[in-house]
Hints:
The complex is a heterodimer.
Chain A: E1 2-13, E2 16-27, E3 31-36, H1 42-50, E4 57-62, E5 65-66, H2 72-78, E6 80-83, H3 95-102, H4 109-122, H5 124-128, H6 139-151, E7 157-161, H7 169-184, E8 188-193, H8 196-202, E9 205-210, E10 213-219, H9 220-225, H10 227-233
Parallel strand pairs in A: 3-8, 3-9, 6-7, 7-8
Antiparallel strand pairs in A: 1-2, 1-4, 4-5, 9-10
Helix pairs in contact in A: 3-6
Chain B: H1 2-32, H2 39-55, H3 59-62, H4 65-92, H5 100-122, E1 127-128, E2 138-141, E3 144-147, H6 148-170, H7 172-182, H8 184-189, H9 194-220, E4 222-223, H10 227-242, H11 247-267, H12 273-287
Antiparallel strand pairs in B: 1-4, 2-3
Amino acid sequence: MALLTLSDVRVRYGSVEALHGIDLTVDEGEIVTILGANGAGKSTTLLSISGLVRPASGEILFDGKPLLRLPSHEVVGLGIAQAPEGRRVFGAMSVLENLRLGAFSIRDKERSERTLEWIFDLFPRLQERKGQLAGTLSGGEQQMLAIGRALMAEPRLLLLDEPSLGLAPLLVRSIFDTVRAINQRGVTVLLVEQNARAALKLATRGYVLEVGRVVREDTAANLLADAAVREAYLGG
Amino acid sequence: MEQFFQQLLNGLAVGGIYALVALGYTMVYGVLKLINFAHGDLFTIGAYLGLTLLASWNLAGVLPPAVAVLAVFVMVGLLVALIGVLLERAAYRPLRGANRLSAVVSALGASIFFENAIMLIYGARVYVYPDFLRPDFTVDLFGVSVPGVRLLILGASVALMLALSAFIQRTRMGAAIRATAIDPGAARLMGINVDRVIALVFLIGPGLGGMAGLMVGIYYGQIDFTMGWSYGLKAFTAAILGGIGNIPGAMLGGLLLGVTEALAAGYVAMAWKDAVAFLVLILILIIRPTGILGERTADKL
Lengths: 236, 301
Protein backbone atom coordinates (compact mmCIF):
# COMPACT_ATOMS: atom_id res chain seq x y z
CA MET A 1 0.00 0.00 0.00
CA ALA A 2 1.19 3.48 -0.80
CA LEU A 3 2.46 5.53 2.13
CA LEU A 4 1.18 8.78 0.64
CA THR A 5 -1.57 9.26 -1.93
CA LEU A 6 -2.78 12.51 -3.42
CA SER A 7 -5.91 12.25 -5.55
CA ASP A 8 -7.29 15.09 -7.60
CA VAL A 9 -5.86 17.75 -5.25
CA ARG A 10 -6.92 21.24 -6.26
CA VAL A 11 -5.59 24.41 -4.67
CA ARG A 12 -6.84 27.93 -5.23
CA TYR A 13 -5.10 31.16 -4.29
CA GLY A 14 -7.99 33.62 -4.41
CA SER A 15 -9.58 33.17 -7.82
CA VAL A 16 -6.51 31.55 -9.39
CA GLU A 17 -6.28 27.78 -9.36
CA ALA A 18 -2.66 26.79 -8.67
CA LEU A 19 -3.10 23.01 -8.71
CA HIS A 20 -5.60 21.60 -11.20
CA GLY A 21 -6.06 18.14 -9.71
CA ILE A 22 -2.80 16.46 -8.76
CA ASP A 23 -2.52 12.67 -8.49
CA LEU A 24 0.59 11.34 -6.88
CA THR A 25 1.69 8.35 -4.81
CA VAL A 26 4.77 7.63 -2.74
CA ASP A 27 5.54 4.13 -1.51
CA GLU A 28 7.29 3.34 1.73
CA GLY A 29 11.07 3.51 1.36
CA GLU A 30 11.09 5.39 -1.95
CA ILE A 31 12.75 8.62 -2.98
CA VAL A 32 10.28 10.35 -5.29
CA THR A 33 11.06 13.62 -6.98
CA ILE A 34 8.78 16.31 -8.35
CA LEU A 35 10.29 18.28 -11.21
CA GLY A 36 9.00 21.38 -12.90
CA ALA A 37 9.63 25.01 -13.66
CA ASN A 38 9.00 27.91 -11.30
CA GLY A 39 5.31 28.30 -10.65
CA ALA A 40 4.46 24.74 -11.71
CA GLY A 41 2.97 24.09 -8.26
CA LYS A 42 5.74 21.99 -6.69
CA SER A 43 5.95 23.90 -3.42
CA THR A 44 2.17 24.24 -3.26
CA THR A 45 1.94 20.45 -3.46
CA LEU A 46 4.31 20.01 -0.50
CA LEU A 47 2.59 22.76 1.51
CA SER A 48 -0.78 21.05 0.92
CA ILE A 49 0.58 17.81 2.33
CA SER A 50 1.87 19.63 5.43
CA GLY A 51 -1.42 21.48 5.82
CA LEU A 52 0.00 24.97 5.39
CA VAL A 53 -2.05 25.39 2.25
CA ARG A 54 -5.65 24.17 2.24
CA PRO A 55 -6.74 22.39 -0.95
CA ALA A 56 -10.20 23.31 -2.23
CA SER A 57 -10.94 19.70 -3.04
CA GLY A 58 -9.37 16.29 -3.49
CA GLU A 59 -7.95 13.81 -1.04
CA ILE A 60 -4.61 13.28 0.67
CA LEU A 61 -4.06 9.99 2.48
CA PHE A 62 -1.05 9.21 4.63
CA ASP A 63 -0.80 5.62 5.77
CA GLY A 64 -4.53 5.37 5.07
CA LYS A 65 -5.44 8.42 7.17
CA PRO A 66 -6.97 11.50 5.54
CA LEU A 67 -4.88 14.64 6.04
CA LEU A 68 -7.06 17.23 4.39
CA ARG A 69 -8.86 18.53 7.46
CA LEU A 70 -5.95 18.02 9.85
CA PRO A 71 -4.19 21.05 11.39
CA SER A 72 -0.55 21.15 10.36
CA HIS A 73 0.85 20.40 13.81
CA GLU A 74 -1.05 17.10 13.81
CA VAL A 75 0.34 16.23 10.39
CA VAL A 76 3.83 16.44 11.92
CA GLY A 77 2.68 14.17 14.73
CA LEU A 78 1.63 11.52 12.18
CA GLY A 79 5.17 11.40 10.80
CA ILE A 80 5.48 13.96 8.01
CA ALA A 81 8.19 16.61 8.35
CA GLN A 82 9.21 19.25 5.87
CA ALA A 83 12.35 21.24 5.14
CA PRO A 84 10.57 24.10 3.37
CA GLU A 85 11.56 26.25 0.44
CA GLY A 86 13.95 28.99 1.50
CA ARG A 87 14.93 26.89 4.55
CA ARG A 88 13.07 29.14 6.97
CA VAL A 89 15.37 28.44 9.91
CA PHE A 90 14.69 30.50 13.04
CA GLY A 91 17.46 33.04 12.47
CA ALA A 92 17.46 34.64 15.92
CA MET A 93 17.72 31.26 17.66
CA SER A 94 20.75 29.01 18.04
CA VAL A 95 21.37 25.94 15.88
CA LEU A 96 20.67 23.67 18.84
CA GLU A 97 17.41 25.51 19.67
CA ASN A 98 16.31 25.12 16.04
CA LEU A 99 16.99 21.39 16.21
CA ARG A 100 15.16 21.01 19.51
CA LEU A 101 12.15 22.81 18.05
CA GLY A 102 12.14 20.22 15.29
CA ALA A 103 11.45 17.64 17.99
CA PHE A 104 8.55 19.69 19.39
CA SER A 105 6.05 16.87 18.81
CA ILE A 106 8.32 14.18 20.32
CA ARG A 107 7.66 13.40 23.96
CA ASP A 108 10.47 10.87 24.44
CA LYS A 109 13.48 13.03 25.37
CA GLU A 110 15.99 10.17 25.37
CA ARG A 111 15.05 9.11 21.86
CA SER A 112 15.34 12.75 20.76
CA GLU A 113 18.88 12.87 22.10
CA ARG A 114 19.76 9.82 19.99
CA THR A 115 18.17 11.43 16.91
CA LEU A 116 20.24 14.54 17.64
CA GLU A 117 23.42 12.44 17.72
CA TRP A 118 22.49 10.89 14.39
CA ILE A 119 21.93 14.35 12.88
CA PHE A 120 25.31 15.52 14.19
CA ASP A 121 26.82 12.41 12.52
CA LEU A 122 25.12 13.32 9.24
CA PHE A 123 26.08 17.01 9.50
CA PRO A 124 29.18 17.39 11.71
CA ARG A 125 29.11 21.07 10.78
CA LEU A 126 25.93 21.55 12.80
CA GLN A 127 27.59 20.13 15.89
CA GLU A 128 30.51 22.54 15.48
CA ARG A 129 28.11 25.45 15.23
CA LYS A 130 25.40 24.35 17.62
CA GLY A 131 25.68 27.46 19.80
CA GLN A 132 25.71 29.87 16.87
CA LEU A 133 22.63 31.83 15.78
CA ALA A 134 21.04 30.13 12.78
CA GLY A 135 20.79 33.44 10.91
CA THR A 136 24.58 33.73 10.84
CA LEU A 137 25.11 30.35 9.12
CA SER A 138 26.04 30.08 5.45
CA GLY A 139 23.36 29.03 2.96
CA GLY A 140 24.62 25.44 2.87
CA GLU A 141 24.72 25.21 6.65
CA GLN A 142 21.21 26.61 6.88
CA GLN A 143 20.06 23.91 4.47
CA MET A 144 21.71 21.25 6.65
CA LEU A 145 19.96 22.78 9.63
CA ALA A 146 16.58 22.79 7.86
CA ILE A 147 16.96 19.11 6.99
CA GLY A 148 18.30 18.21 10.44
CA ARG A 149 15.47 20.11 12.10
CA ALA A 150 12.91 18.20 10.02
CA LEU A 151 14.58 14.89 10.94
CA MET A 152 14.27 15.74 14.64
CA ALA A 153 10.53 15.11 14.24
CA GLU A 154 11.46 11.47 13.45
CA PRO A 155 9.41 11.47 10.24
CA ARG A 156 8.44 8.45 8.19
CA LEU A 157 8.07 10.81 5.24
CA LEU A 158 10.49 13.70 4.69
CA LEU A 159 9.43 16.50 2.35
CA LEU A 160 12.35 18.45 0.88
CA ASP A 161 11.70 21.63 -1.06
CA GLU A 162 14.60 22.71 -3.29
CA PRO A 163 17.44 21.71 -0.96
CA SER A 164 20.03 22.59 -3.64
CA LEU A 165 18.80 26.14 -4.24
CA GLY A 166 21.64 28.63 -4.23
CA LEU A 167 24.30 26.12 -3.18
CA ALA A 168 27.69 25.47 -4.81
CA PRO A 169 27.83 22.23 -6.87
CA LEU A 170 30.10 20.49 -4.38
CA LEU A 171 27.69 21.23 -1.55
CA VAL A 172 24.75 20.06 -3.62
CA ARG A 173 26.43 16.68 -4.09
CA SER A 174 27.10 16.39 -0.37
CA ILE A 175 23.51 17.30 0.52
CA PHE A 176 22.16 14.75 -1.98
CA ASP A 177 24.50 12.07 -0.62
CA THR A 178 23.12 12.81 2.82
CA VAL A 179 19.55 12.52 1.54
CA ARG A 180 20.45 9.05 0.26
CA ALA A 181 21.90 8.16 3.67
CA ILE A 182 18.71 9.39 5.35
CA ASN A 183 16.63 7.27 2.99
CA GLN A 184 18.75 4.23 3.76
CA ARG A 185 17.79 4.66 7.40
CA GLY A 186 14.21 3.96 6.34
CA VAL A 187 12.89 7.50 5.82
CA THR A 188 10.76 7.89 2.70
CA VAL A 189 11.62 11.08 0.79
CA LEU A 190 9.55 13.33 -1.45
CA LEU A 191 11.93 15.75 -3.09
CA VAL A 192 11.05 18.90 -5.02
CA GLU A 193 13.92 20.05 -7.19
CA GLN A 194 14.90 22.35 -10.01
CA ASN A 195 18.23 20.58 -10.30
CA ALA A 196 16.56 17.78 -12.25
CA ARG A 197 19.64 15.78 -13.15
CA ALA A 198 20.86 15.44 -9.56
CA ALA A 199 17.34 14.69 -8.35
CA LEU A 200 16.71 11.97 -10.94
CA LYS A 201 20.03 10.29 -10.15
CA LEU A 202 18.95 10.06 -6.54
CA ALA A 203 15.27 9.21 -6.95
CA THR A 204 13.51 5.98 -7.78
CA ARG A 205 10.59 7.70 -9.53
CA GLY A 206 9.70 11.15 -10.71
CA TYR A 207 6.73 13.34 -11.54
CA VAL A 208 6.87 16.29 -13.92
CA LEU A 209 4.59 19.21 -13.11
CA GLU A 210 3.56 21.88 -15.58
CA VAL A 211 1.34 24.77 -14.50
CA GLY A 212 -0.46 22.84 -11.82
CA ARG A 213 -0.78 19.50 -13.61
CA VAL A 214 1.15 16.24 -13.62
CA VAL A 215 2.27 15.81 -17.23
CA ARG A 216 4.65 12.86 -16.83
CA GLU A 217 5.28 10.19 -14.27
CA ASP A 218 7.86 7.47 -14.70
CA THR A 219 10.88 5.80 -13.17
CA ALA A 220 13.82 8.10 -12.67
CA ALA A 221 15.89 6.15 -15.19
CA ASN A 222 13.26 6.54 -17.92
CA LEU A 223 12.86 10.24 -17.22
CA LEU A 224 16.63 10.74 -17.38
CA ALA A 225 16.70 9.03 -20.77
CA ASP A 226 13.61 10.78 -22.14
CA ALA A 227 14.31 13.28 -24.91
CA ALA A 228 11.50 15.69 -24.02
CA VAL A 229 12.47 15.78 -20.34
CA ARG A 230 16.12 16.25 -21.26
CA GLU A 231 15.16 19.13 -23.49
CA ALA A 232 12.98 20.88 -20.94
CA TYR A 233 14.69 20.22 -17.61
CA LEU A 234 18.17 18.85 -18.17
CA GLY A 235 19.53 21.48 -20.50
CA GLY A 236 19.47 19.29 -23.64
CA MET B 1 21.91 64.03 44.97
CA GLU B 2 19.19 62.81 47.27
CA GLN B 3 16.52 64.16 44.99
CA PHE B 4 18.14 62.45 42.04
CA PHE B 5 18.24 59.14 43.88
CA GLN B 6 14.60 59.43 44.94
CA GLN B 7 13.48 60.33 41.44
CA LEU B 8 15.55 57.52 40.01
CA LEU B 9 13.91 54.94 42.28
CA ASN B 10 10.48 56.40 41.67
CA GLY B 11 11.15 56.27 37.94
CA LEU B 12 12.24 52.66 38.18
CA ALA B 13 9.11 51.71 40.14
CA VAL B 14 6.80 53.41 37.63
CA GLY B 15 8.98 52.13 34.79
CA GLY B 16 8.59 48.58 36.06
CA ILE B 17 4.82 49.01 35.79
CA TYR B 18 5.17 50.41 32.26
CA ALA B 19 7.41 47.48 31.39
CA LEU B 20 4.86 44.91 32.60
CA VAL B 21 2.15 46.50 30.47
CA ALA B 22 4.54 46.96 27.53
CA LEU B 23 5.28 43.22 27.58
CA GLY B 24 1.66 42.52 26.73
CA TYR B 25 1.77 44.82 23.71
CA THR B 26 5.08 43.49 22.51
CA MET B 27 4.33 39.78 22.91
CA VAL B 28 1.02 40.04 21.08
CA TYR B 29 2.69 42.09 18.37
CA GLY B 30 5.42 39.45 18.19
CA VAL B 31 3.12 36.55 17.35
CA LEU B 32 0.22 38.32 15.60
CA LYS B 33 1.77 41.55 14.26
CA LEU B 34 -1.22 43.27 15.86
CA ILE B 35 -1.37 46.10 18.36
CA ASN B 36 -3.86 44.95 20.96
CA PHE B 37 -5.50 48.31 21.65
CA ALA B 38 -7.64 46.74 24.34
CA HIS B 39 -4.55 45.91 26.39
CA GLY B 40 -4.67 49.17 28.36
CA ASP B 41 -8.23 48.34 29.36
CA LEU B 42 -7.19 44.92 30.60
CA PHE B 43 -4.75 46.79 32.82
CA THR B 44 -7.65 48.92 34.12
CA ILE B 45 -9.70 45.80 34.73
CA GLY B 46 -6.83 44.50 36.84
CA ALA B 47 -6.91 47.63 38.98
CA TYR B 48 -10.70 47.42 39.49
CA LEU B 49 -10.78 43.68 40.09
CA GLY B 50 -8.05 44.11 42.67
CA LEU B 51 -10.11 46.73 44.45
CA THR B 52 -13.24 44.62 44.36
CA LEU B 53 -11.47 41.55 45.65
CA LEU B 54 -9.77 43.49 48.43
CA ALA B 55 -12.75 45.52 49.54
CA SER B 56 -15.96 43.59 49.02
CA TRP B 57 -14.49 40.22 49.76
CA ASN B 58 -13.00 41.64 52.90
CA LEU B 59 -9.91 39.55 52.34
CA ALA B 60 -7.88 42.13 54.18
CA GLY B 61 -10.00 41.60 57.26
CA VAL B 62 -9.48 37.84 57.24
CA LEU B 63 -5.86 37.65 56.24
CA PRO B 64 -2.88 39.76 57.26
CA PRO B 65 -2.63 42.65 54.75
CA ALA B 66 0.58 41.36 53.14
CA VAL B 67 -0.90 37.92 52.54
CA ALA B 68 -4.16 39.43 51.30
CA VAL B 69 -2.34 41.60 48.79
CA LEU B 70 -0.30 38.65 47.59
CA ALA B 71 -3.40 36.48 47.19
CA VAL B 72 -5.17 39.27 45.31
CA PHE B 73 -2.15 39.62 43.03
CA VAL B 74 -2.41 35.99 42.03
CA MET B 75 -6.19 36.14 41.58
CA VAL B 76 -6.10 39.35 39.54
CA GLY B 77 -3.36 37.87 37.34
CA LEU B 78 -5.39 34.75 36.68
CA LEU B 79 -8.72 36.53 36.12
CA VAL B 80 -7.32 39.13 33.72
CA ALA B 81 -5.40 36.37 31.92
CA LEU B 82 -8.71 34.57 31.45
CA ILE B 83 -10.32 37.75 30.09
CA GLY B 84 -7.35 38.10 27.73
CA VAL B 85 -7.86 34.61 26.34
CA LEU B 86 -11.60 35.25 25.90
CA LEU B 87 -10.80 38.53 24.14
CA GLU B 88 -8.56 36.70 21.70
CA ARG B 89 -11.20 34.04 21.05
CA ALA B 90 -13.99 36.56 20.52
CA ALA B 91 -12.31 39.52 18.84
CA TYR B 92 -9.15 38.28 17.10
CA ARG B 93 -9.31 34.59 16.25
CA PRO B 94 -12.35 34.89 13.96
CA LEU B 95 -10.34 37.48 11.99
CA ARG B 96 -7.17 35.39 11.71
CA GLY B 97 -7.48 35.05 7.94
CA ALA B 98 -8.71 38.58 7.33
CA ASN B 99 -6.52 41.58 6.56
CA ARG B 100 -4.73 43.35 9.36
CA LEU B 101 -6.90 46.45 9.32
CA SER B 102 -9.95 44.40 10.34
CA ALA B 103 -8.13 43.13 13.40
CA VAL B 104 -7.08 46.68 14.32
CA VAL B 105 -10.69 47.86 14.11
CA SER B 106 -11.74 44.89 16.21
CA ALA B 107 -9.07 45.81 18.78
CA LEU B 108 -10.34 49.38 18.97
CA GLY B 109 -13.88 48.10 19.34
CA ALA B 110 -12.84 45.77 22.15
CA SER B 111 -11.14 48.69 23.88
CA ILE B 112 -14.27 50.85 23.71
CA PHE B 113 -16.33 47.91 24.93
CA PHE B 114 -14.13 47.30 27.96
CA GLU B 115 -13.85 50.95 28.91
CA ASN B 116 -17.62 51.41 28.82
CA ALA B 117 -18.25 48.13 30.59
CA ILE B 118 -16.03 49.25 33.46
CA MET B 119 -17.82 52.61 33.58
CA LEU B 120 -21.24 50.92 33.60
CA ILE B 121 -20.30 48.48 36.33
CA TYR B 122 -18.30 50.78 38.60
CA GLY B 123 -19.48 54.24 37.57
CA ALA B 124 -17.37 57.08 36.28
CA ARG B 125 -16.00 58.28 39.60
CA VAL B 126 -12.48 57.88 40.90
CA TYR B 127 -11.97 54.98 43.32
CA VAL B 128 -9.60 55.03 46.24
CA TYR B 129 -7.66 51.96 47.33
CA PRO B 130 -7.81 51.20 51.07
CA ASP B 131 -4.66 52.88 52.32
CA PHE B 132 -3.93 50.39 55.08
CA LEU B 133 -2.83 48.09 52.26
CA ARG B 134 -0.07 50.44 51.32
CA PRO B 135 3.08 49.37 53.13
CA ASP B 136 4.10 52.50 55.04
CA PHE B 137 7.57 51.53 56.25
CA THR B 138 10.66 53.24 54.90
CA VAL B 139 14.02 51.77 54.11
CA ASP B 140 17.33 53.49 54.66
CA LEU B 141 19.27 53.11 51.44
CA PHE B 142 22.74 54.76 51.20
CA GLY B 143 21.62 57.31 53.78
CA VAL B 144 18.44 58.12 51.91
CA SER B 145 15.10 57.20 53.35
CA VAL B 146 13.08 55.40 50.64
CA PRO B 147 9.39 54.47 50.89
CA GLY B 148 9.10 50.70 51.19
CA VAL B 149 6.19 50.54 48.75
CA ARG B 150 8.46 51.91 46.05
CA LEU B 151 10.94 49.11 46.56
CA LEU B 152 8.22 46.47 46.77
CA ILE B 153 6.64 47.60 43.51
CA LEU B 154 10.01 47.63 41.80
CA GLY B 155 10.92 44.26 43.28
CA ALA B 156 7.62 42.70 42.23
CA SER B 157 7.88 43.89 38.64
CA VAL B 158 11.52 42.81 38.37
CA ALA B 159 10.62 39.38 39.79
CA LEU B 160 7.80 38.99 37.26
CA MET B 161 10.08 40.03 34.41
CA LEU B 162 12.78 37.58 35.48
CA ALA B 163 10.21 34.80 35.69
CA LEU B 164 8.94 35.65 32.22
CA SER B 165 12.47 35.75 30.80
CA ALA B 166 13.25 32.34 32.26
CA PHE B 167 10.02 30.96 30.81
CA ILE B 168 10.67 32.41 27.36
CA GLN B 169 14.34 31.43 27.24
CA ARG B 170 14.38 28.07 28.97
CA THR B 171 11.14 26.21 28.37
CA ARG B 172 9.72 24.31 25.43
CA MET B 173 6.64 26.56 25.19
CA GLY B 174 8.86 29.63 25.53
CA ALA B 175 10.84 28.47 22.52
CA ALA B 176 7.56 27.86 20.69
CA ILE B 177 6.52 31.48 21.37
CA ARG B 178 9.83 32.77 20.01
CA ALA B 179 9.65 30.53 16.96
CA THR B 180 6.07 31.62 16.22
CA ALA B 181 7.13 35.26 16.47
CA ILE B 182 9.92 34.67 13.93
CA ASP B 183 7.96 32.57 11.39
CA PRO B 184 4.49 31.21 12.21
CA GLY B 185 4.44 29.00 9.12
CA ALA B 186 7.75 27.37 9.92
CA ALA B 187 6.61 26.99 13.54
CA ARG B 188 3.61 25.00 12.33
CA LEU B 189 5.94 22.77 10.32
CA MET B 190 7.70 21.99 13.62
CA GLY B 191 4.45 20.61 14.99
CA ILE B 192 3.73 23.71 17.07
CA ASN B 193 0.04 24.47 17.55
CA VAL B 194 0.21 28.17 16.71
CA ASP B 195 -3.34 28.83 17.96
CA ARG B 196 -2.31 27.51 21.33
CA VAL B 197 0.81 29.68 21.34
CA ILE B 198 -1.31 32.75 20.60
CA ALA B 199 -3.71 31.82 23.40
CA LEU B 200 -0.74 31.44 25.74
CA VAL B 201 0.50 34.90 24.81
CA PHE B 202 -2.97 36.27 25.55
CA LEU B 203 -2.76 34.54 28.91
CA ILE B 204 0.65 35.92 29.88
CA GLY B 205 0.36 39.49 28.53
CA PRO B 206 -3.00 40.38 30.11
CA GLY B 207 -2.03 38.52 33.29
CA LEU B 208 1.02 40.75 33.71
CA GLY B 209 -0.94 43.83 32.63
CA GLY B 210 -3.69 43.11 35.16
CA MET B 211 -1.14 42.77 37.95
CA ALA B 212 0.40 46.08 36.84
CA GLY B 213 -3.04 47.68 37.24
CA LEU B 214 -3.22 46.41 40.78
CA MET B 215 0.27 47.81 41.42
CA VAL B 216 -0.84 51.26 40.30
CA GLY B 217 -3.79 51.06 42.66
CA ILE B 218 -1.55 50.20 45.57
CA TYR B 219 1.21 52.65 44.63
CA TYR B 220 -0.87 55.73 43.86
CA GLY B 221 -3.93 54.81 45.89
CA GLN B 222 -6.50 55.83 43.29
CA ILE B 223 -7.85 54.51 40.00
CA ASP B 224 -10.37 55.56 37.37
CA PHE B 225 -11.85 53.94 34.29
CA THR B 226 -9.76 55.95 31.81
CA MET B 227 -6.41 55.05 33.37
CA GLY B 228 -5.91 52.30 30.78
CA TRP B 229 -5.69 54.93 28.10
CA SER B 230 -2.84 56.95 29.58
CA TYR B 231 -0.91 54.00 30.97
CA GLY B 232 -1.57 52.04 27.80
CA LEU B 233 -0.15 54.84 25.69
CA LYS B 234 2.92 55.12 27.93
CA ALA B 235 3.47 51.38 27.87
CA PHE B 236 3.00 51.33 24.11
CA THR B 237 5.64 54.08 23.90
CA ALA B 238 7.91 51.92 26.05
CA ALA B 239 7.39 48.94 23.75
CA ILE B 240 8.27 51.06 20.69
CA LEU B 241 11.23 52.55 22.54
CA GLY B 242 12.66 49.11 23.26
CA GLY B 243 11.71 47.72 19.85
CA ILE B 244 8.19 46.39 19.33
CA GLY B 245 8.09 42.60 19.35
CA ASN B 246 11.24 42.40 21.45
CA ILE B 247 10.70 41.13 24.99
CA PRO B 248 13.90 42.44 26.68
CA GLY B 249 13.25 45.64 24.70
CA ALA B 250 9.88 46.14 26.39
CA MET B 251 11.47 45.72 29.81
CA LEU B 252 14.29 48.12 29.03
CA GLY B 253 11.94 50.60 27.31
CA GLY B 254 9.57 50.61 30.29
CA LEU B 255 12.30 51.25 32.84
CA LEU B 256 13.96 53.91 30.68
CA LEU B 257 10.70 55.72 30.06
CA GLY B 258 9.81 55.64 33.74
CA VAL B 259 13.17 57.09 34.75
CA THR B 260 13.12 59.75 32.01
CA GLU B 261 9.66 60.82 33.09
CA ALA B 262 10.52 60.92 36.77
CA LEU B 263 13.65 62.98 36.15
CA ALA B 264 11.70 65.37 33.94
CA ALA B 265 9.06 65.70 36.63
CA GLY B 266 11.68 66.30 39.29
CA TYR B 267 14.03 68.65 37.46
CA VAL B 268 11.82 70.41 34.92
CA ALA B 269 8.25 70.44 36.18
CA MET B 270 5.61 67.90 37.04
CA ALA B 271 3.47 69.23 34.19
CA TRP B 272 6.16 68.30 31.65
CA LYS B 273 6.13 64.61 32.60
CA ASP B 274 3.81 63.41 29.83
CA ALA B 275 5.23 65.81 27.28
CA VAL B 276 8.70 64.38 27.83
CA ALA B 277 7.38 60.81 27.51
CA PHE B 278 5.83 61.53 24.14
CA LEU B 279 8.80 63.57 23.03
CA VAL B 280 10.78 60.38 23.60
CA LEU B 281 8.31 58.51 21.39
CA ILE B 282 8.58 61.08 18.60
CA LEU B 283 12.37 61.15 18.80
CA ILE B 284 12.67 57.39 18.68
CA LEU B 285 10.33 57.21 15.70
CA ILE B 286 12.47 59.76 13.87
CA ILE B 287 15.94 58.59 14.86
CA ARG B 288 15.55 54.85 15.33
CA PRO B 289 12.10 53.53 14.36
CA THR B 290 13.13 49.94 15.14
CA GLY B 291 13.68 50.85 18.79
CA ILE B 292 16.73 50.26 20.95
CA LEU B 293 16.85 46.47 20.69
CA GLY B 294 14.60 46.10 17.66
CA GLU B 295 17.28 45.14 15.18
CA ARG B 296 16.28 42.18 13.08
CA THR B 297 19.01 39.58 12.72
CA ALA B 298 19.91 39.11 9.10
CA ASP B 299 18.30 36.01 7.62
CA LYS B 300 20.31 34.76 4.71
CA LEU B 301 18.35 33.40 1.82
